[in-house]
C-alpha cells in the first residue's frame, strides 16, 4: 500500500497522465494573473516541501515565485562597434532561474531566510517555484534543533551567497569532490590560488 506522499510524488512524476493535470492547467491560468511573488497558505507539492525541510508550524512560510523563461538580453549599445561585438542578445546568465526565484522571494521577505525551493510548473512565458522561507527570530524555530542552525549569523543572507541547493548547482558544486576541483572553494577563489 502506497503512502499518501508516494501517491502525490507519483502523480507529479507523470503529470500529463495523472488526475491532477486538468487542475494544474487551471492553476497556470490563475498563477499568470497573480503577482510575481505570492505567499501561500499551504504547499502545492506537500511531499516535496516536506522532503526539503518544510514544517507546518510557526516561523515557516511558503511563497510562490514567478520568473520569466529563456535567456536574457541587455539594452542595445548605442556606441560604435562591429555588429558581432554588440553581444546584447541570446545571453545565458550564470544563475539558474530557480536561484533567481529564491532571491526574489528573499527580497520580498527580508526578515526571513530561504531554506530551499522546488518546481511547481511552467507555461509559455514563466516558470513557477515554491520557496520555503524561515523566520530566523521565531521562538518556534529557535527551539527546534533541526532548523535552529539557520538563526546563526553565518547563515544570514545565504541565498545571495549561493548557499542554497540551487546556489550550489549554479556554482558547479553539489556533486561531490570528483569533477569540481576547480570550483572549490569558489571559481573566483580557485583562480586566485592558481595564479
Task: Using brief descriptors, characterize the structure shown.
alpha+beta; 195 residues; 4 strands; four-stranded antiparallel beta sheet; Ribosomal protein L15e; 17% strand
Structure characterization notes:
- GO terms for molecular function: RNA binding; structural constituent of ribosome.
- By secondary structure, the chain is an alpha+beta fold.
- The chain has a single domain (4-148), classed as Ribosomal protein L15e, CATH 3.40.1120.10.
- 30% of the residues lie in helices and 17% in strands.
- The protein is built from seven helices and four strands.
- It has helices spanning 4-13, 21-33, 46-51, 97-108, 139-142, 165-170, 187-193, and strands spanning 37-40, 60-68, 112-122, 126-135.
- Strands 1-2-4-3 form a four-stranded antiparallel β-sheet.
- Strand 3 (112-122) and strand 4 (126-135) form a beta hairpin.
- The longest helix is centred in the first third of the chain and has 13 residues, at 21-33.
- The chain is globular and about 65 Å long.
- 23% of the residues are buried.
Amino acid at each position: 500500500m502506497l503512502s499518501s506522499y508516494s501517491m502525490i510524488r507519483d502523480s507529479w512524476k507523470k503529470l500529463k497522465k495523472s488526475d491532477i493535470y486538468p487542475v494544474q492547467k487551471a492553476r497556470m491560468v490563475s498563477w499568470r494573473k497573480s503577482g510575481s511573488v505570492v505567499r501561500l497558505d499551504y504547499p502545492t507539492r506537500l511531499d516535496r516541501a516536506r522532503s526539503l525541510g518544510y514544517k507546518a508550524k510557526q516561523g515557516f512560510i511558503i511563497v510562490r515565485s514567478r520568473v520569466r523563461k529563456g535567456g536574457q538580453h541587455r539594452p542595445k549599445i548605442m556606441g560604435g562597434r562591429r555588429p558581432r561585438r554588440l553581444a546584447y542578445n541570446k545571453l545565458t546568465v550564470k544563475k539558474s532561474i530557480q536561484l533567481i526565484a529564491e532571491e526574489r522571494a528573499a527580497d520580498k521577505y527580508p526578515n526571513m531566510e530561504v531554506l530551499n525551493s522546488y518546481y511547481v510548473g511552467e507555461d509559455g512565458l514563466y516558470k513557477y517555484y515554491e520557496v520555503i522561507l524561515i523566520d530566523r527570530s521565531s521562538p518556534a524555530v529557535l527551539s527546534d534543533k533541526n532548523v535552529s542552525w539557520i538563526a546563526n549569523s553565518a547563515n544570514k543572507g545565504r541565498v545571495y551567497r549561493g548557499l542554497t541547493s540551487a546556489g550550489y548547482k549554479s556554482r558547479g558544486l553539489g556533486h561531490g569532490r570528483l569533477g569540481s576541483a576547480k570550483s572549490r572553494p569558489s571559481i573566483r577563489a580557485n583562480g586566485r590560488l592558481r595564479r
